[in-house]
Design brief:
By secondary structure, this protein is mainly beta. It folds into two domains: 128 residues, Jelly Rolls; 97 residues, Jelly Rolls (Sandwich), CATH 2.60.120.10. The chain contains no helices and 19 strands. The strands form three sheets. Strands 12, 13, 14, 15, 16, 17, 18 and 19 form an eight-stranded mixed β-sheet that branches. Strands 1-2-3-10-5-8-11 form a seven-stranded antiparallel β-sheet, with no helix packed on it.
Length: 233
Amino acid sequence: MHKNSQRGFADHGWLKARHSFSFAGYYNPEKNHFGVLRVLNDDIVAAGMGFGLHPHDNMEIITIPLQGTLEHKDSMGNTGVISFGEVQVMSAGSGISHSEFNHSKIQEVRLLQIWLFPNKKNVTPRYDQIQYQLKEMNNQWVQIVSPNPDDEGSWIHQDAWFHLGKFSKDAYSQYQIQKEGNGLYIFVISGAVEVFDFKLESRDALGIWEMGKIPFVVLEESLILIMDIPMEI
């Protein structure tokens, strides 16, 4: 169980970041990763500000905007602007440089940035940007990431499935682990849910492994991200 209040915090003025796992100046030896999930950063970027050109390699990077607009540029020549209802995926592979800025000069942007260890190293870098239907998220799971290029959503070099769901109060749902040996990292973006005997509120998280089907009882209207990921790196 990872409570919101137990996350790392960094305030750089233009950037306010919450870290679920050790990152930059935040280090917690008990929170270095969960399976292949290495980074889950919950960022607020001030208007017109952002991350200048910087490199990555051998990491699968998933960016999910929650509010506002985020502008991306990279060394492959890709440019794009994403907002809530879209997901950006970057396979850093053998090496890539990119920048990310708040596209708005007026409003802040809020986003989740997630890093997974890949199952293949030094692959050719790639960039992808997809939209998902917000209305399809109502009281059901929408797949936004998978290992399969032909499946719904985008794809990554890892046996991982990401789903988003927006559930009304008193709704009930279940999620079936996609692959034997995978675990589930549940992150409540907003609202409150009960999973087994654990109550999760806004920005709380729960890691589960060695299970098959996971029940969700929704205590208040909630937006939930679930990451179905290998536990072995």
